[in-house]
Amino acid sequence: MDKIVHIVQKTRKKPLWRSVQFTIATLLLVNFASPLHVVAKVTTTKIPAVISQEPENSAEAACLIDVNTGRILYEKNAHKRMRIASLTKIITAWIAVRSGKLDQMVTVSANAVRQEGSSVYLAYGERQTLRNLTYAMMLRSGNDSAMAIAEFLGGSNDRFAKMMNIQVQKLGLHESHFMNPHGLDHKDHYSTAHDMAVITATALRNPVFKTIVKTKYYSIPWEGQKWDRKMKNKNKLLWMMPNADGVKTGFTKLSGRCLASSASSEGRQVAFIVLRDGNDWVDSQRLLTYGLTAFEVRDVVKLAPLHAVTKVQYGVEQTVPLQPMGHVNYVFGKNEDVHVKTRIVQLKRLSAPVKRGTIAGRVQYWFQGKEIGEVNLITTREVKPKGILGRIRDLFL
Asked: Peptidase S11 D-Ala-D-Ala carboxypeptidase A C-terminal domain spans which residues (predicted)?
């Protein structure tokens, strides 16, 4: 029977002790191997199925976001710059899955092997696909995997960090700065709950990333061994909450406990970030439930009736009514007093004959000072042209 090795969490140790620790752990696991797929018992707190009011939480900073629309549903010190530990790996993984290189082979460097903290025990010169390294980084929080990814995609830690910073700036975020791909403490490495919520929601809209972070178990080859690395996701929320589907744990002594989590229901997905939260599992379940049950998707086009016309030249009618074509879905609180504003742009002056359904402009929908969607305006009926005598008469009027 194949032996199964459980990739364990490793704390920072001196290099000599690291080698001894690895050897002892390997020998013990080989001789007393047990199936990894036995899920450890998780202590649960009963969470109501519906939460309509903002729950209390213990986080120093927190932010809840609707993934599809990007609307912020809850904030607590959300713009405070803080250490984020391994939540950093969310953007590292996002860059990796968008690189188009997931099936290319990566050779692990000595520098990657030397990384402190969490590890999947990569060996110098070992070759893994970028996909396998991304799974190892997100499920087991391997810092060695993160550095191998950074060196492969960026050429070095510093160049990859520059890539990370450019990507978040493209998202319009200016309260984050990254110095490495894994989140080990550095005085110039920081983000905010708000920025991490936006980054996480953006990443979750990528189907490959979404699949990786909801995966409970994954195996990658272990060169030189007769068994694979069998990895179990460290995110306990995947077992504690039936509809949880991500995302990443994080911890250092300076950052405290951090967690990026997500959950889905009835076509909606929300993500929640907590920074320095000693009660992260329970707080996350409560806020995710709140985000999914206290809010709903509504069609803004129906919420904001529009009465618009445009002029028609040479027609038997001088104007034609317009209506929006399509839908703009946005999330609102179930008891929220919603005021949506409209703004007509790119309005065209038409010339007869005009067919019904002709695009004559666009309408933007605004909520709380932010544009939340835009659709075409189309004519609601046809307009026939005037005869030649009518056109001549118009020239003299």
From this structure: 295-385
pLDDT tens per residue, range 124-171: 999 999 999 999 999 999 999 999 999 999 999 999 999 999 999 999
**Could you tell me which of 278, 285, 240, 233 has the C-alpha nearest to residue 262?**
285
Query: Any known ligand binding at 248?
Result: yes
Annotated catalytic residue, options 89, 210, 230, 236: 89
89 is catalytic: yes
141 noted as active-site residue: yes
Q: Decide if 255 is catalytic.
A: no
Q: Which domains does the chain have, with CATH numbers?
A: 5-293 (3.40.710.10), 300-395 (2.60.410.10)
Pick the catalytic residue from 109, 118, 119, 141. Answer: 141
pLDDT tens figures, 243-301: 999 999 999 999 999 999 999 999 999 999 999 999 999 999 999 999 999 999 999 99
Pairing of strands 308-313, 350-351: parallel
Do the Cβ atoms of 123 and 112 come closer than 8 Å? no
